[in-house]
Specification:
By secondary structure, the protein is mostly beta strands. The chain is about 5% helix and about 25% strand.
């Protein structure tokens, strides 16, 4: 009986024991609550029981040992708890598949325990609070195909016998504290090898095999990338100590690629043009290395590319025109390099862009108005270049900053059967999340996901001018864009990421600036805004939401987060008085019209003329 994915709710009824002849019961992916009823263990001919991905609580009943015919038991992703001793399953002599992952169990595996059940094909104990050395009993599980012990506290050396298990195809030991090195050769039999975030070291063996996924990121591997790399759809070597050049043999016409991540190493040399032959490549991350030279024109052949991250290298030259062919790009990060020239106008062709970072380069000329056609853009960072001229008037056309948008992520899913067991697919789900590092006033913030509320624009560190037009011109523009601007979720400068204000030191703010802040307060319906500012003698620098420079005494940061109603024109006129303002938060407001206040996003100076 398969009742999975049916939005069933409530508890499993005790009367389920009346289904005495049932052999397979699957209640996966529902909303079931309560405890596993002991009556469920009266189904003596049951061969498969699947209760995963519900909200079940309590413990596994001891009477589970009655199910002598049980071959598969899966309980992952519930709220089950307790100290689990694996010998409780010894009576299940036919057991081939067991998954207790992602509950609140603490599982102790005795080194002297010899399992009485049959040879396992599938074992999932992810996030089960397992401690100590790698379980030696697994060395006798010769039929094991799928092993997931990730996100535990396993220490010691990665056992060499693990690579000799004849049928093992999917291995996930990520997020442990394992040490040691890899074997001289990894067998072609493996479909998935995930060893991310351990303490493994040594040089990498040849990677000349066909696999779906190989993730060795965030370890301590050193040496160079092997010259021979087979067809590995998802290959991540990021966060190690790899040196040398990226091998020019990395891609061939016959290989199908999805993700290639060599970021956060010490790689040198140039980006090989052969990467342009990586057919189907969706993510290319070479950030935080020591790569030099120009971006090869051949990267423009990667028309399936959704992420191109070259941040933090020593790359130079101009952005090649061929990149305009990569129209599916969502993340384009060239920050912290030595690129020069103008920001290309053809960038408007990349209409799917959600993140564009060109920070800390040598780009000159003006900000092209064509950028405003990137309606899906959620993060724009052009800070610390040599840009000049006025800020484009139509920034309100960046609609994604005015509306809710979906999480930016690249998700891969891979499914494979384990041992031919019904309902027992060893589905290996790997979600690859793009990271973006945003610099806010010298502070690096790295996000694994960019959520709906995270909208960011930084134009600081340039030679830009702001409000050149007179007030009438501002009003006309603002009124035209009012239907867009009143939807902005985070018109602000990075404090919407949750950076609070530090303790404010009273330094006696300037009178004209105090009057400007008072003007905003008097036109706000929020009584909590700048509390006590109306009181005579109150120093605005001593109020929550306002920060002043300790040296100049000028207001340099204002927090206007979450106001109900404020007239946008009043905000703009008042902010123009704060000529030393560096940081302002206008996120989550009911401001109806912002009168181009967006033009001062994280600017080091605001230029306001009569």
């Amino acid at each position: 009986m398969d009742l999975s994915h049916n939005q069933l709710s409530g508890t499993i009824p005790e009367s389920i024991s009346m289904l005495a002849s049932i052999e397979v019961l699957s209640l996966n992916y529902n909303h079931l609550t309560g405890k596993i009823p002991p009556s469920l263990c009266e189904l003596l001919v049951l061969s498969e029981l699947h209760l995963g991905h519900n909200q079940l609580s309590g413990t596994i009943p001891d009477s589970i040992s009655k199910l002598a015919s049980l071959e598969v038991l899966t309980l992952p992703s519930n709220r089950l708890r307790g100290n689990i001793s694996l010998p409780m399953f010894d009576n299940l002599t036919r057991l081939q598949g067991l998954d207790l992952s992602e509950n609140q169990f603490t599982i102790a595996i005795s080194t002297s325990w010899v399992p009485q059940f049959g040879h396992l094909v599938y074992l999932g104990l992810r996030s089960c609070n397992i401690e100590g050395d790698f379980p030696p009993l697994l060395s006798q599980q010769y039929e094991l195909e799928y092993l997931d012990l990730s996100s535990n506290y396993i220490v010691g050396n990665l056992p060499s016998w693990l690579w000799d298990l004849p049928y093992l195809r999917m291995l996930n030991l990520s997020y442990n504290q394992l040490e040691g090195s890899l074997p001289r050769k990894i067998s072609h039999k493996f479909t998935v090898v995930d060893l991310k975030e351990n303490k493994l070291y040594g040089s990498l063996p040849p990677l000349d095999f066909v696999s779906f996924m190989l993730d060795l990121s965030d370890n301590k591997f050193n040496g160079s990338i092997p010259a021979t790399i087979g067809s590995i759809y998802f290959l991540s070597l990021s966060g190690n100590n790899l040196t040398g050049k990226i091998p020019s043999s990395i891609c061939t016409d016959s290989n199908e690629w999805g993700i290639l991540d060599f970021s956060n190493n010490k790689l040198t040399g140039m980006i090989p043009a052969s990467i342009g032959l990586c057919s189907g490549l969706g993510v290319l991350k070479l950030a935080q290395n020591v790569l030099q030279g120009e971006i090869p024109e051949e990267l423009g052949n990667l028309q399936t590319l959704s992420t191109l991250n070259l941040n933090g290298n020593r790359l130079e030259g101009i952005i090649p025109l061929s990149i305009s062919n990569c129209t599916g790009l969502k993340v384009f990060d060239l920050g912290n390099n030595k690129f020069e020239g103008s920001i290309p106008v053809w960038i408007e062709k990349l209409t799917d862009l959600k993140i564009l970072s060109l920070t800390s380069n040598n780009f000159k000329s003006t900000i092209p108005t064509q950028l405003m056609r990137l309606h899906n853009l959620q993060i724009l960072d052009l800070s610390n270049n040599n840009l000049s001229g006025s800020i484009p008037q139509n920034l309100s056309k960046l609609y994604a900053m005015a509306n809710q948008s979906q999480i930016i992520e690249v998700e891969l899913r891979f499914s494979g059967s384990a041992g031919g067991l019904r309902y027992m697919q060893s589905v290996y789900e790997s979600k690859y999340e793009d990271e973006i590092t945003v610099w806010i006033k010298g502070r690096a913030l790295t996000y694994g996901r960019i959520y709906n509320a995270d909208k960011f624009m930084d134009l600081s560190g340039n030679n830009l001018s702001g409000c050149k037009e007179n007030q009438t011109e501002w009003n006309n523009t603002a009124n035209n864009d009012a239907n867009v601007m009143d939807k902005w979720w985070a018109v602000g400068m990075g404090l919407s990421y949750g950076i609070g204000f530090a303790t404010i030191i009273a330094v006696l703010c300037i009178h004209s600036e105090r009057e400007a802040l008072l003007h905003i307060k008097n036109n706000s319906s929020d009584s909590s805004l700048f509390v006590s500012l109306r009181e005579k003698g109150t120093d605005c620098c001593d109020l929550y939401g306002i920060s002043c420079s300790n040296t100049t005494h000028h207001v340099d940061a204002v927090h206007l987060f979450g106001l109900d109603t404020v007239e946008g024109g009043i905000v703009w006129q008042s902010l123009c008085t704060l000529t030393f303002l560096q940081t302002i938060d206008l996120s989550y407001n009911g401001i109806s019209v912002l009168y181009k206040a967006v033009a001062i996003l994280v600017l080091k100076w605001i230029f306001c003329t009569a």
